[in-house]
Amino acid sequence: MSFVSRKKLTLFDWVNYSLLSLISLICIFPFIYVFSVSFTDPKVYVPLKFYVFPEQWSLSSYRYILSTNSFINALKSTVFITVVGTALNVIVSFSLAYALTKKAMPGRGIMISAVIFALVFNAGIIPSYLLIKELGLLNSYWSLIWPALTNAWSLIVIKSFLESLPAELEDSARIDGCSDLGVFLRIVIPLSMPAIAAFTLFFAVSHWNTYFNALIYISDSKKWTLQVLIKTLVIDSDSNGVGQAGAGGDDRVIPQETIRMASIVLAMVPILIVYPFLQKHFAKGVMLGSVKG
């Protein structure tokens, strides 16, 4: 018998559990509504009606949104930015953090001070925009990748994690004739897989959800990311032509609301699929770098 089952629940416990359950339901209802509307057949959809379950299931909205050039272009842009950006994030962050763990590295103190300074202070929107403009990166995918190769918080956590690894392993590898690069690739990287998995998901989610930078750096609608396109569908009155025609070759006009909800679901699904596979590495990967001693 568990401790919880043997413990007598007090009035405070009942009130606490009831309030937490109510708050959980309030948080879950918007997601239920989004999923239900997205799968509702356009023929039976009624605006401003709350759907817990679709009255009649249909994939018409998904078939239509996946057939539009605007959504496909946004999906390709987001996938490219996420895959390339995440790979570069992991390579740069772990390489730089490993270098910062070496006390013999020239300029190490200055670089650590710069990282801490960047953690506290930010240049702001206007200087960042002017820098991107002067580099000729405006309206380019690289404007969303190069400025975000790493960040101060990630470097500090990864550096702390790498410093917690046994130094004797590196010394043994060097005695066996392994170079610095060999030590990093053969010893440090395999031991850092939990942290790499955790930060890979952190970086991937950040790139997948990129919105503000894409909004101010990219003006070509063909290069919009999913988040910018969804903002256009959900908020702006002009839906960029999505959902204005019938689906499946007939004359039915699909309601804009079902199109919007289907777009939101499609934008969430990839991260929801990847997250469970890497979730187990979150606590282990981050906590290993949080405390040393």
UniProtKB/TrEMBL annotation:
Gene3D superfamilies, per this entry?
Answer: MetI-like
Pfam name, any one:
BPD_transp_1
Q: Please name the SUPFAM superfamilies in this protein's record.
A: MetI-like
Location(s) in or outside the cell: Cell membrane
| UniProtKB keywords | Cell membrane, Membrane, Transmembrane, Transmembrane helix, Transport
Q: Which residues cross the membrane?
A: 12-35, 79-100, 112-132, 183-205, 259-278
Residue intervals of the ABC transmembrane type-1 domain: 75-277
Primary localization class, coarse: membrane
The superkingdom of the source organism is Bacteria
Q: Per UniProt, what is the membrane topology?
A: Multi-pass membrane protein
The record's annotation in InterPro entries points to:
MetI-like, MetI-like_sf
Family per record: Belongs to the binding-protein-dependent transport system permease family.
- Report the protein name in the record: Carbohydrate ABC transporter permease
User: Which classification does the entry list for the species?
Assistant: Bacteria, Bacillati, Bacillota, Bacilli, Bacillales
